[in-house]
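ok so i was messing around last nite and threw this chain in just to see what happens. nothing serious, just curious
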Amino acid sequence: MINEPVQKAALIIGSQAKLAREIGASPAMVHQWINGIRPISAERCIDIERVTSGGVTCEELRPDLAERWAYLRGTEKTASIPADQKAA
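result:
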């Protein structure tokens, strides 16, 4: 199964080898991500989003980590704490 977001990132950067260089990974690892041999780590998702200037997002690369991305972006819904229970 082809990982289309990683493939898209390689196209944006120029090639799989260039993408690998930009994020500090091996070309073989990028190839494995694209071909679904290995899952892409959350840390590499962040790197790919950065080097593609948001052309490929973490959410596209690892939708299974949606809660993590929401937390990192500050969009996670949090329960409001009553004022009298907040730490002074």
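not much to say yet. The longest helix spans residues 4-13.
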